[in-house]
């Protein structure tokens, strides 16, 4: 029996990408928001609100998702700001999910721009997990015009971690046998469910990498972080038994 094959699909800079695609392919604009310092969010005229999504060029100015528009403008005075169009984003999300449903036997939508696919047993149709993920990534780009990252593994946690390894428009695998090489060297703050407060607590214990967390005495983590300590210990070791539920 073949092992489970789970994909995590994540639209790159979703709101901004979907906005850019609509403006270029539907409205016929020549300026692509993805190629200039730009963000979706707030109101540029009133200088309030927050950044909901940013372009790659905007990242060079250290603009962060969630920061105030006025702060982003201080970092980049020539920043292009566009108001969010949620109806467009729902339509774009639905279009992506429809492609996933055509390819994967089981699809769980995780958020408006993320989904998991159970691709177990599809090797005879699409080839290796990397080949299947590349096919899916390229099909979404060719048909819808925006890029996604696809992470491949044997459970949802590792598939999500794989997809975040490097962006945009890439496929990554992170199977259990790859954890030590690919995941353990990462900053402990990169682990799913390790927020800023938890990271500070772990750092105070001398734990700075995911690998160090994975090899820490579980009793110590339980003492300092209670049940959350056990959860992130399991995640650091690649353990996740959460079932994939078909919701699409």
Description:
With 248 residues, the chain is of the alpha/beta class. 43% of the residues lie in helices and 14% in strands. It contains 11 helices and 8 strands. It has helices spanning 14-26, 56-59, 69-75, 86-103, 123-126, 129-144, 156-163, 179-182, 196-204, 210-214, 218-236; strands at 6-11, 38-40, 53-54, 80-82, 106-111, 114-118, 148-153, 171-173. It has a 5-stranded mixed sheet. Strand 5 and strand 6 form a beta hairpin. Helix 4 (86-103) packs antiparallel against helix 6. The model has no long low-confidence stretch (mean pLDDT 96).
Any descriptors?
8 strands, 248 residues, 3-stranded mixed β-sheet, alpha/beta
């Amino acid at each position: 029996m073949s092992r489970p094959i789970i994909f995590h699909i994540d639209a790159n800079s979703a709101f901004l990408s979907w906005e850019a695609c609509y403006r270029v392919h539907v409205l016929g604009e020549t300026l692509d928001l993805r190629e200039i310092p730009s963000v979706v969010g707030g109101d540029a005229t009133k200088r309030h609100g927050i950044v909901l999504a940013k372009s790659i060029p905007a990242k060079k100015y250290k603009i962060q998702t969630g920061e105030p528009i006025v702060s982003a403008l201080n970092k980049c005075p020539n920043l292009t700001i566009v108001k969010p169009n949620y109806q467009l984003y729902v339509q774009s999300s639905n279009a992506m999910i429809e492609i996933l449903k055509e390819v994967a036997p089981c699809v769980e939508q995780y958020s408006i721009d993320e989904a998991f696919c159970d691709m177990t047993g599809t090797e005879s149709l699409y080839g290796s997990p990397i080949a299947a993920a590349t096919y899916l990534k390229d099909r979404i780009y060719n048909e819808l015009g925006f890029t996604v990252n696809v992470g491949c593994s044997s459970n949802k946690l590792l598939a999500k971690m794989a997809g975040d390894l490097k962006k945009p428009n890439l496929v990554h695998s992170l199977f259990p046998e790859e954890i030590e090489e690919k995941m353990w060297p990462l900053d402990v703050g990169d682990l799913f469910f390790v927020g800023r407060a938890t990271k500070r607590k772990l750092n105070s214990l001398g734990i700075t990498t995911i690998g160090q967390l994975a090899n820490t005495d579980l009793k110590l983590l339980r003492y300092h972080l209670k049940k959350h300590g056990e959860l992130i210990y399991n995640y650091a070791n690649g353990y996740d038994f959460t079932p994939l539920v078909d919701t699409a």
